[in-house]
Amino acid sequence: MRDIIQYFDLITAIIEHSPAVSAELDIEQLDSKRGTVDGVLYFADGSRLEFTERVLIERARPVKRDYRYQYVKSQSPVFRYDNAPHHPQLASFPHHKHVGRKTLDAKEPTLEEVIKESVSLINQAADASQQGVPKPRRSKKRQAPTK
């Protein structure tokens, strides 16, 4: 990757090919090698994925200095990945994942991986809601009684 614009193009393409129904994206290029991208992806079920990446291109590779990916459903956070240095006890420090009140070890995810995880949760919820719905039954035609 030559510059930060190429990275922003990659992020834009990932979003365009995602199952999000709409997205907001704010890109700030600081110079040819540094920039920030903030975004929100909205899904058909009303959930959303909020994210921020502060990126530097080093040795032709993007390096995330800071990141945060938060999946929200029904106005409540479901999970969040970030690399804020506030959980030094974790083996993956500073990378971690919040799920409810738990803080878990996690590797640094890509935006694409977090989108896939969010969509998987959406699909699981849709499958679960379908399990309680009875399948339509075919009724047999009844003959009118003969006189």
Shape: globular
Biggest β-sheet: count, sense, barrel?
Answer: 7 strands, antiparallel
Strand order of the largest sheet: 1-2-3-4-5-6-7
**Beginning-to-end CA distance, first to last residue:** 86 Å
Summed over residues and divided by their number, the pLDDT gives a mean of 91
Helical segment count: 2
Summary keywords:
2 helices, 23% helix, alpha+beta, seven-stranded antiparallel beta sheet
Description:
This protein is of the alpha+beta class and 147 residues long. It is 23% helix and 38% strand. Strands 1-2-3-4-5-6-7 form a 7-stranded antiparallel beta sheet, with helices on one face. The termini are far apart. The mean pLDDT is 91. The chain has 2 helices and 7 strands; from the N terminus they run αβββββββα. The longest helix is centred in the last third of the chain and has 21 residues, at 111-131. Strand 1 (22-29) and strand 2 form a beta hairpin.
